[in-house]
Amino acid sequence: MEEGNPAELPSRAPMPEKQRGPTVLRRGQATASTTDQRLLDSRGPADWVHTDPWRVLRIQAEFVEGFGTLAAIGPAVSVFGSARTPRDTPEYALGETLGAALAKAGFTVITGGGPGLMEAVNKGACEAGGMSVGLGIELPFEQRINDYVDIGIEFRYFFVRKTMFVKYAQAFVILPGGFGTLDELFEALTLVQTRKVTRFPIVLLGTAYWGGLMEWVSARLRAEGMVAPEDIELVRLTDSVEETVDVILSAAEARRREGRV
After folding, report:
1. Tell me: the pLDDT tens digits for 24-64?
2. In the predicted model, what is the mean pLDDT of the chain?
3. Domain boundaries, the chain
4. What is the pLDDT of residues 21-30, one digit of tens each?
5. CATH annotation of 63-257
6. pTM reported for the whole predicted model
7. What per-residue confidence (pLDDT) applies to 200?
8. What integer pLDDT is reported at residue 6 of this predicted model?
9. Rounded Cα distance, 160 and 229, in Å
């Protein structure tokens, strides 16, 4: 038998096949129901809402909601810091001072919307007459959006929330914090270092808290060639709120001159 002669090929029973959008389903995967039927039929288990395709729609909806809500907030600065800082501490007072200074300089402040230093920054901005934004996240333990937030969004997915912090910010300011704060710091540094985003200021506010980290970065990472010398310059370490705001304003002016507003 010559290959490619259809008349002489052995006959086979038709294979069950179903087309579902761009997906072809065969054999045991080909179901009799239609997409519309599954959508409109309210009977049966609710497991379908937990499947990966449905999660994609939820993720899409979170992006759409975030983009739509934040598109008109104007020039903004994302500020990160611990949710565990008590209100009667110098760090909390520093957060209030920072929030007020950013608001007076014409910036919207964006925080994680929770308690501690996030609340302090939102409070400072709110009481100074500025715009105060809080981007919350669904957690196993309850953490409500603080009372000083003018615009609050609760996200299910960390990566969607992270996108909003970066997309609408002209600078990052990092107050003392834990793992979550470190995560945001090093994500921002990585994005700027790899030029995935246009370079923007990253300020560590609190030399006593952050100084040891930067010494380690210089003594180990730079010394062993893990980062380039110029990478260290991506971060400004200071105790001064005034210097922090000046750095951000200078960068904003440079963007205007370059036509990157």
Report:
1. 555 666 666 665 565 566 566 666 666 777 888 888 999 99
2. 86
3. 63-257
4. 455 555 666 6
5. 3.40.50.450
6. 0.81
7. 87
8. 43
9. 32
